[in-house]
Amino acid sequence: MNNAKHKVLVANLRSLGEVFNITPEVFRTVGTRYRQLADKLESLMTMILNVTTP
What we know:
Elements: H1 3-20, H2 24-52
C-alpha cells in the first residue's frame, strides 16, 4: 500500500475511532489488519489484471 492510500486509511480509521471511542490499542490492531487486507486485495487485483490483459 502506498503512502497516499495509507494516509487516507489512517484518516478514515481515526474518524471511526473518534465516533465509536475506540482505544489506541484497538485502533493499531484494526489498522494493521485492514492494511494487510488492503495489500492482499491490491495484489489480487494486480494478478487479475495481469491475467486478463493481453
